[in-house]
Amino acid sequence: MQLRTLVPTALAVAATAAVGGLANRSTGTGRGARSPWFASLRKPPYQPPAAVFPIVWPVLYADLAVTSAATLDELENRPEQRRRYLAALAVNLVLNGSWSWLFFNRGKLATSAVAAGALAISSADLTRRAAAVRGAKAAPLAAYPAWCAFATVLSTHIWALNRR
């Protein structure tokens, strides 16, 4: 894997994580993962403990950065395919960062459930694209759409439990 590919890919993924993390903090909106607003939401029994999220997301982000950089390296001599992968990655990162803002910063439970679904579809598409290029070497990326699908179910259930 080339550093000239890994560094910008990792920076883009890290920026997405930072943007999402900012939305997750309780701000002037009174929302965030540790806020009274979030604590007051009814949640399904399968809601993971809060300690799970800061473990899972960095692993998924690292995997996304490394797998995407390696995929882009392999697509170096296929500019059109490389451009399409970069576009799919950009869309995915925007959707990823947007979910936290919709859910935590704005408290838009229904909209964030839809955004989570779009992120799960985008993540599955990104994994499909990486697997088409790298085969089994892209297999670890499958954890990302699996987690996003779980997040979609969880977000949708939280929305359903808290509709007023």
Automatic annotation (TrEMBL):
CDD domains: TSPO_MBR
Subcellular localization, as worded in the UniProt entry: Membrane
Keyword Transmembrane: yes
Topology versus the membrane: Multi-pass membrane protein
Sorted UniProt keywords: Membrane, Transmembrane, Transmembrane helix
GO biological process, one term: tetrapyrrole metabolic process
GO terms for cellular component: membrane
Main localization of the protein described in the UniProt heading: membrane
InterPro entries: TspO/MBR-related_sf, TspO_MBR
Alphabetized Pfam families for the sequence: TspO_MBR
Keyword GTP-binding: no
Family label: Belongs to the TspO/BZRP family.
Protein name stated in the entry: TspO/MBR family protein
